[in-house]
Amino acid sequence: MNPLHDNQPRVVAIALNPALDHTLEIDSLHIGEVNRALRMQVDVGGKGINVASCLADFGITSSVTGQIGRENAAQFETLFHAKGIDNRFFYLDGLTRINTKVVDLTNGQTTDINMPGPSMEPDAIQNLFERLLIRIDGLVSARSWVVVSGSLPPQWPADTYQRLITHVHSLGAYALLDASGSALAAGIGAAPDIIKPNRDELSELIGRTLEDTASVAAAARELLARPNAPGTVIVSMGGDGALFVNRQEALLAHPIPTELTSTVGAGDAMVAGIVAAQIAGKPLADCARLATAFSAGKLARVGPHLPPPDTVRALAQMVQISSIS
Hints:
Layout: E1 11-15, E2 19-26, E3 37-45, H1 47-57, E4 62-69, H2 73-83, E5 86-87, E6 90-92, E7 98-104, E8 110-113, H3 122-139, E9 145-149, H4 160-170, E10 174-178, H5 181-187, E11 194-195, H6 199-206, H7 213-224, E12 232-236, E13 242-245, E14 250-253, H8 266-279, H9 284-299, H10 309-318, E15 321-323
Parallel strand pairs: 1-4, 1-9, 2-7, 4-5, 4-6, 9-10, 10-11, 11-12
Antiparallel strand pairs: 2-3, 7-8, 12-13, 13-14, 14-15
């Protein structure tokens, strides 16, 4: 499939295990001691929601679907209303999980303490999955982009994303997969159009340590040579930049200097930038620039937010691209 089109398709983000991110800023974190926070912020989170939020900041509307708990749904609804995100979630009894992020301002590191998500019986999971497919049918049309991302809640089958991507493709739409572990390993079997693991996730998937850019590029090409391979492999590597690899070329997008406030959600911002680039019909190099700019813009903010679109575009012009032989 060619993911580039003249008309802007709709974007649907699937979030099966969203969260409220409770972020604490600490001057310097000391394990095993009493730490006093300088500031606290609670943000709606989860990969799919983060992607939709960043797209909204760039002027691209999207729908979000999955499951959230009724007891703390108000904060999600506030974000969706403020950013014009189309809320198509299923509401379940209880709370949506709460994750804690501790930001050490001295070294710029973030410590994550993530809850597993709601537990459901197998029959309830299957029922919700079937309802989700019906909802996707009503949201997705040919040339839509569907972002399938994040962790699976407890007891959900590892092939959940694989089945979702297969269904999305049957509707003539495109799928971007951003997952890890068994969900990623199963999901790539459905030949997603783009996958975006980080270096550690790709290393686990391939089954060997990836020590440098050349080894990451080789692993990406190895995935592209498999049966039912993804169309494009994009690997985020933190301070080493990001690799963008398809069957024609392999490009390294170098990181750009930016204020570092929180790394939480930087990968999700990159996913949003990738989707924005596909919608705009950009070639791989320009996709790499825009995706890197999305990620850099988010680093200066706590929560799933970007600076104004003109600022993001200016950041994109600063991104240096190298070809990997």
